[in-house]
UniProtKB/TrEMBL annotation:
Family annotation (Pfam families): PALP
Species this chain originates from: Natronorubrum texcoconense
Domain of life: Archaea
UniProt protein name: L-threonine synthase
Span of domain Tryptophan synthase beta chain-like PALP: 74-378
Amino acid sequence: MKTTDAFAGLDCVDCGASFDAAAEYHTCPDCDGLLDATYDYDAIDLDRETLAARPFDSLWRYEELLPFTRESAVTTNEGATALVDCPDLADELGVERLLIKDEGRNPTGSTTDRGQSVALTAASQHGASDVALATTGNGGQAAAAYAGRAGLESHSYVPSRSSFSNKAMINVHGGDMNVVGGRYDDAVGAFEEGLAENEDWYSVQSFVTPYRHEGAKTTLYEIVEGLEWDVPDVVVYPTGVGVGLVGAYKAATELRELGLIEDLPGLYAAQADGCAPIVDAFENDRDEHEPVETPDTICGEIEISDPPASGRVLEALRETDGGAVATEDRDILEAAVQVAQHEGLEMAPSPAAAASGVWELAERGEFDGSETVVIVNTASGNKEGDVLRSHLMSQGV
Ligand SMILES: [Zn+2]
């Protein structure tokens, strides 16, 4: 395997056992816990000047902090997305500075490209022939794209409610797609049956492969570097499974470990009222979520009623003195429209939960005016322009 010098292997976050990354691909063979990539940070010599001298061209510019070499990467130059100042929104919300990290500019229009680039690199290094996952949509499109690039087959299980553009593009990338009636949990059930029947399939499911949050962590590196190492006070992630937040927490602690920053940003989870297990657990001081019985939100990408690693997501919020906020679908769609009309940026409905969440935090009086706030726009508005347009129709436009 073409691993980087400091990459030490995989540790189980539950039982603490360590494994060779060439031997273990997925969850812990001892306890089925989640595996996490570990590094010898003392062996990493990375300073602000070194990074500033590198082109801002791909997440692989942080190669030392990734498991695999850039040369071996399955990449379409994902990452290196824009961090856009939104002064009018900052004024309206009463904060010093508000920025949107526009992950919609990734190759397939969503932040999942980061994780799939690293996960498909791992699959390729492990000699996989087929990758498979259950996905609300964006992750499947990205898996199909990167599998195509790596010369592997992909098998995506998507719920019937997944957006047309994701389904269409999974096909366009040559991926095998299984549309499962119902919601995300139904897709997971069908995917698990598929995995059981096909022993050669390699899972690129979030928190089954250790590598999706490893790719996702680079978003936070870019945010902090983009702010010239001035750590933002608040970073709000639209949250379904929570890969982005777990990655962000890891990234922040790594930057601190390397002496590049001192403070951690406050990490916030934003969900939709109709499916907010993380927010509910946070507000009730629980260490784990309770599954949502009847999820119901227009935000299909984050409609995850039973997130597999809620303990880690909640840890990220609490250890950074962050928070959690849920808002109603109507407010979320309106937030996407307001951002589009006043800042020119296109947010899909699910990431607009983060924008709506920031409005809600402002209304609750959580800001004193001195904050720098970053909203992570995880997917392009183009992916679900029809849903956003329908919201205008409901307003009589
Ligand atoms: Zn274990």
